[in-house]
Amino acid sequence: MAEHNEEEIRRGVMPITGLVPMISVQDVERSLEFYSLLGFAVGNRVPRQGRMNWAWLYAPNAPDWRRGPNLMLSRSEHEIDPAAKGVLLYLYATDLAGLRAEFMSAGINPGPIKYPDYLPKGEFAVQDPDGYRIMVAQTDSETP
After folding, report:
1. Residue 119 confidence (pLDDT)
2. Strand pairing category for 133-138 and 123-127
3. CA–CA gap between residue 34 and residue 88 (Å, rounded)
4. CA atoms of 47 and 27, how far apart (whole Å)
5. How far apart are CA 125 and CA 110, in angstroms?
6. Burial track 32-64 (b if 16+ CB lie within 10 A, e otherwise)
C-alpha cells in the first residue's frame, strides 16, 4: 500500500480532491447565522424546506468555490461537547482586524489578535454557538 501511494505521489496523482469537515450542531440555522459572518452560504440542505437537519456551506465569493472553504453542519439530537472531541477549525481571512470587528458588531466576543512566532500577521480565537473553537488567521503569501 505504501509503495503504491509513493508511486502515485511521484506521478503527481492526488487520491483526495478535497476536504470538507462536518460538525454536529444543536441548531443548523443558528450555526448558519454565525458562519455567514465568515462568508459561508448554504449550497445544499436537507430537507429542502423547513428546519434543516443538514447543510453544506460553501464560500460563494471564493475565486473557485469548489476549492474554497467548505463545511457541513449536521443537527444532533444529543448534547454537543466540542472540547471532548478536540475539534479546532483553523481559517484564514483577508482582513483579520475587519472580521474581528464584524464579530464584535454582531455581539460575538472574539479573543484579542495575537501575534505568535509561527504567524506574525496575527490570529484570534472565537467560539461558534455550539462551543467549537475557531482560530482565524491573517492570510499572506505564505498561507492559504
Report:
1. 92
2. antiparallel
3. 16
4. 14
5. 6
6. bebbeebbbebeebeeeeeebeebbbbbeeeee
Query: Per-residue confidence at 22, pLDDT binned at 50, 70, 90?
Result: very high
Strand-by-strand arrangement of the 22-25 sheet: 22-25, 70-75, 54-58, 41-46
The dihedral sign for the CA sequence 74, 79, 85, 87: positive
Q: CATH number of the domain at 18-138, out of 3.30.465.10, 3.10.180.10, 3.40.47.40, 3.40.50.300? A: 3.10.180.10
Span 70-84, pLDDT tens digits: 999 999 988 888 777
Q: Is 130 exposed, middle or buried (0-12, 13-18, 19+ CB in 10 A)?
A: buried
Most confident of the following: 7-11, 33-37, 81-85: 33-37
- Type of residue at 29: E
Q: Please, which residues bridge with residue 119 across strands?
A: none
